[in-house]
Amino acid sequence: xxxxxxxxxxxxxxxxxxxxxxxxxxxxxxxxxxxxxxxxxxxxxxxxxxxxxxxxxxxxxxxxxxxxxxxxxxxxxxxxxxxxxxxxxxxxxxxxxxxxxxxxxxxxxxxxxxxxxxxxxxxxxxxxxxxxxxxxxxxxxxxxxxxxxxxxxxxxxxxxxxxxxxxxxxxxxxxxxxxxxxxxxxxxxxxxxxxxxxxxxxxxxxxxxxxxxxxxxxxxxxxxxxxxxxxxxxxxxxxxxxxxxxxxxxxxx
Length: 253
Ligand code: XBP
Ligand code: MG
Fold this sequence. Notes:
Distance between the termini: 20 Å
Strand content: 5-15%
Order of helices and strands: EHHHHHEHEHEHEEEH
Shape: globular
Bound molecules: xylulose-1,5-bisphosphate, magnesium ion
Mean pLDDT: 97
Low-confidence stretches: none
Helix content: 40-55%
């Protein structure tokens, strides 16, 4: 029997390649529509990703450039609402891709009878249509978003809520993440973590993730292995077998 019953996935940067050419572009379009001079280039946005949650990110950035709190309270929700509409349109137009190998792993998990769920700090208004278009929303036993958990990652709330909603136990569950903030959130919920880094998180330590690859890996294009603390990988592919060995190894320590 598999030591693995449940896998909880992050969305941004993990299941989907959504930040540089997705959220960043939508934020910039919203700035333009509101007549604001701000534009986030790729590098600036990479730095801002340290602040999770789009509204928190806008507050921190606008505060740094001297916009008073009262004005921010007024404009941030409006900007973020419009950014969300723009991002939903991008998702519905097929402009936000799944990361290579994500669908392969989800299909393998489903075929193995492993429950899958989502824990993201993103907004449900875009999370639901994006996941539905790429993966079919009905395969996820729970989809926990920033709307459900005001305390964003690295707080553990989204993971704790996903565990509660699925009835999963940390000992038979693994989290899949892409960033330091996400790894910290999952570890704070007592979950072992497999990380799939991307261009924005390639230089992050991802401390606490027992497994780190630079992607899910596909048969044609295996991922690079950055860490394999318990020697659970047998190739550059994140597989059900590897995740199950990770759950077993983490549970025995
Ligand atoms: C994702 C986020 C989100 C997205 C944008 O972090 O922090 O804010 O960047 O989505 P994680 P919203 O992958 O750790 O969940 O604008 O809807 O917040
Ligand atoms: Mg992420």
